[in-house]
Amino acid sequence: MALKNGPESFGIATRSLHWLTVLAVVAAGGLGLWIEEMEVSLATLQYFGWHKTAGITVLGLTVLRIVWHRLSPVPPVLPAPPMAERLAKAVHLSLYACLLAMPLTGWIGSSATGLDTVVFGGITLPAIAPVSEAIEETAFEIHETLAALLWVLIALHVAGALNRAFLHRDATLRRMLRG
Amino acid sequence: MRHLLTRLLACLALSAAPLVAGAAPHAYALETDTSVVGFAWTLGPDTVKGTMPVKRADMVIDFDSAANTHVAVALDVTGAVAGFPFATQGMKSRKVLWADRFPEITFESTAIRPDDDGAEVDGLLTVRGITRPVTFRAQLYRQKGTQPGDRRRLAIVVTGSLSRAAFGADGWSGMAGDRVDLTILARIRREE
């Protein structure tokens, strides 16, 4: 079980980062949807902290993943029709952009409220934006728009992986599961 | 706080006590260490309690003439606690009390209307630089350990409500309710 990526396979580090990101994105996204609908109370206030914790985890994992892939480049995409390859590449790049921009816009919006951004139950992140209602509103609007876009990109990504696994029967999904 | 009030209420209500001969306007000083401004607000279905220190108070009380009675109080917004850290930050933020710019909340009485059970106190409340007329309910008690008729040390319990929105302090209105209930316990000592 290799840590680094091989010429045709994903190493354990890349696969772990991928699936941990999946978990963190599902947690952050699920909590985000829940927060939008829930009645805020003393009991539910903690979910804001959980959402921020999951979001900052997504950001950390994504940065780590980008750095790791500079050190250990991922294997090339398995052959596919040019259109499908271009689409896959666009979806991948957009996913990375969203995974960076989503937590950052949330962090900017939280900073702009003037309230501390507290994650992992007690770590206060530095403010990365001045206190401003205009910045807060804009950041959270972008955050929500990116959330919708992210769900679409995830759907395309999953559909592409399933298409390759079950229709084209290539190793794309298998090598992300088992290397 | 409740225990304190119970003890106070157990004392003779001064409003029912006979007046001391020779009553005249007397200046009273606030005992800041034992006085507290309590407030309650709602977060969804929950009631959250906070406190705000009194910065200064000028009080002149004439037990014979409400017209000669005057109260002016300033509260220290920067020292307020709203129940839990996020709420305190939110309350002091620009969206609510904007403590950096408006570090004081002030109240000045304009009329006092005594009745059988205390008094209605009309006054001007200034929050975030916005002044609005308000009416609070006040009840006067002598403090524990003092003799009936002794008005050198008193306790005033003031209750009332206000709308945050009326003062432009309407931040996080989707989470926190508009109404704030006040319960103020002011212990005062007559200046000799």
Kindly describe this structure.
- Chain B: Keywords: Signal.
- Chain B: Residues 1-23 form the signal peptide.
- Chain B: This is Lipid/polyisoprenoid-binding YceI-like domain-containing protein.
- Chain B: Residues 27-189 form the Lipid/polyisoprenoid-binding YceI-like domain.
- Chain B: Pfam families: YceI (PF04264).
- The complex is a heterodimer of chains A (179) and B (192).
- Chain A is built from five helices and two strands.
- With 179 residues, chain A is mostly helical.
- Chain A has a single domain (12-178), classed as Fumarate Reductase Cytochrome B subunit (Up-down Bundle).
- Chain A has a two-stranded antiparallel sheet with strand order 1-2.
- The longest helix of chain A is centred in the last third of the chain and has 35 residues, at 133-167.
- Chain A starts with 11 loop residues before the first helix and ends with a helix.
- In chain A, 23% of the residues are buried.
- The model of chain A has no long low-confidence stretch (mean pLDDT 95).
- Chain B is mainly beta and 192 residues long.
- Chain B has one domain: Lipocalin, CATH 2.40.128.110.
- Helices cover 9% and strands 48% of the residues of chain B.
- Chain B has an eight-stranded antiparallel barrel with strand order 1-4-5-6-7-8-9-10.
- In chain B, a hairpin with a 2-residue loop joins strand 7 (118-127) and strand 8.
- The longest helix of chain B has 9 residues, at 2-10.
- Residues 1-22 of chain B have low confidence and may be disordered.
- At the A-B interface, loops of A face helix 2 of B.
